[in-house]
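Justification of computing resources. Each target in the renewal requires a structure prediction run like the one illustrated here; the chain below, 116 residues long, is used simply to show the kind of job we budget for.
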Amino acid sequence: MGAIYLDYGYKKCKIFVEQRFLNFVNLEKIAEYEVNFKSKLIEWFLKNRLEPEFVLVEDILYKFYKHHFITRLLILGIDVCQATGQSKKESQQNAAKIACQLIDYNPNFLSTIIIK
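Resulting structure tokens:
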């Protein structure tokens, strides 16, 4: 594609991609599965006038520079969940996903947190 772009320009490259690749990919189906749980959780926090606190608990370095991050999500200083990932962002996304599942499962989630 890079060679086509350099040789023929943007329009020809766009036509090439549309004809060769986009026929095999269902973009609506791909977009359906892409969920940013952290953004979804932050929206919930804003509606409830709260502020999430993602705390990096541990950064473990394995062989060949592979990291393992552990992130904890706090609401009003109360530990809600903990998640892991190969990057800080991934561990925060995983923690947000767990929190979103907890919120969806329990409609009174906020009141259970405040009572604690």
